[in-house]
């Protein structure tokens, strides 16, 4: 597997702790696992001094097929948009070749000191362009 595949994809076996009384994965667990996939992806970014923080400013979840305990799920991160102060991602959760859920997540780049939105660093922007469709 090459670096881009390794960065963009991860796998999950749905654990019992994520299951609701309905036998389906709890809604919050979809968000938790999508955020873990984003963290996996983003750890490969270039190192920066005085890097800003990245905070979720938008989240949308679309459920197609409920996931259940023991399901093997492939998570794929896609860079959807690169803005001046934000990054848009789509995280797809696929089971048996079908998309069970997808999440659109927008991160806003913020100053560590003030929390105010700041420009996305050029090195991060250049790295992200590799992952645009």
Structure keywords:
disordered N terminus, 3 helices, 133 residues, alpha+beta, 5 strands, five-stranded antiparallel beta sheet, elongated
Given helix and strand content, the structural type is alpha+beta
Largest sheet: 5 strands, antiparallel
Rg is 16 Å
Secondary-structure element order, N to C: HEHEEEEH
Number of strands: 5
Helix content: 10-25%
- Average pLDDT reading: 94
Strand order of the largest sheet: 1-3-4-5-2
What fraction of residues sit in β-strands? 35-45%
What is the rounded distance between the termini? 19 Å
Apparent shape? elongated
Number of helices in the DSSP assignment: 3
Q: Show unreliable segments.
A: 1-5
What is this entry, summarized?
It contains three helices and five strands. The chain has 133 residues and is α+β, with helices and mostly antiparallel strands.
Structure description:
With 133 residues, this protein is of the alpha+beta class. The chain has three helices and five strands. A five-stranded antiparallel β-sheet has the order 1-3-4-5-2. The two termini are 19 Å apart. Residues 1-5 have low confidence and may be disordered.
């Amino acid at each position: 597997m090459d670096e881009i595949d390794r960065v963009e994809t991860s796998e999950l076996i749905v654990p019992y702790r994520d299951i609701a009384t309905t036998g389906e994965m709890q809604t919050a667990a979809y968000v938790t696992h999508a955020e873990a996939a984003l963290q996996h992806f983003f750890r490969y970014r270039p190192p920066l001094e005085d890097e800003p923080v990245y905070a979720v400013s938008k989240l949308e979840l679309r459920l197609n097929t409920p996931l259940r305990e023991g399901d093997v799920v492939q998570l794929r991160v896609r860079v959807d948009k690169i803005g001046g102060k934000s990054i848009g991602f789509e995280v797809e959760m696929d089971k048996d070749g079908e998309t069970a859920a997808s999440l659109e997540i927008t991160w806003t780049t913020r100053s560590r000191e003030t929390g105010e939105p700041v420009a996305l660093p050029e090195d991060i922007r250049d790295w992200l362009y590799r992952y645009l469709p």
